TrEMBL record:
It is found in: Cell inner membrane; Cell membrane. The keyword Transport applies. Gene3D superfamilies: MetI-like. Required for the activity of the bacterial periplasmic transport system of putrescine and spermidine. One of its GO terms (biological process) is transmembrane transport. This is Spermidine/putrescine transport system permease protein PotC.
Amino acid sequence: MSRRDHDIRRYPGARLLTAVFFLWLYLPIAVVIGFSFNQNRLVSVWTGFSTEWYAAALANKALMDALEVSLTIAVIATIGATTIALMAAMVLSRAPAKGIYRLSEAVVNLPLMLPEIVVAVAVLILFSQLGIADGMVKLALAHTAFCTPFAFLPIRARLQGMSRDFEEAAQDLYAPPLTAFRRVTLPLIAPGVFAGAMLAFVMSMDDFITSNMLNSGGSTTLPVYIFSLIKRGTTPELNAISTLMILASLVIATAALVLAARAMRREA
């Protein structure tokens, strides 16, 4: 049987199903983007093209404050989660796959296996018992905790696929462990570290359940603020905010892909 016979494009209906899938996936996003330029305040009634809702969104002080909180928390959580994930991956990727090491890996990945509402309630009770009242501190600690496994997975995968010959060569040349890590290991696993950091950043920016339960005065994140707007009714301003978030996500994803491709070319 030839390779062409296994081409999925030759199966009856494959093209149609693919088109329907992508239409179902991206049509709602296209509708949100299209109606963000609606001149009418009623979302479902098109009266003309306008960019006034983007200006209104950017001039909204409450929105900008929520965005500032989200960015601040996301940066802190990204740095903390990536650092913890990197240290955990360095240890577990070189440890024997048994006993305490398997348990340690399960603990690192535990937030992925638990429903987020369970994690949110747990950290809420913990912070209450510890007497932590500052909303920004609670959000930063909680986001760092649940973002760590998202940063851990790509870093661990990168370390597992990396040959240790370069590290051993550096050690043979009497390089101290820290120097060998900084000059050899870290540049080799940089794409994985960057991917983990970007994933942690996006997960932090996107989080709603934990942020909604832990937010207090002055620590309202962007998803929580958007949810408060939805409760008052959908407007083109909300569509404009969503479109700006989509654009920011595309920029981050594109940057990650470009940097990863450059790193792969350098390795090749």
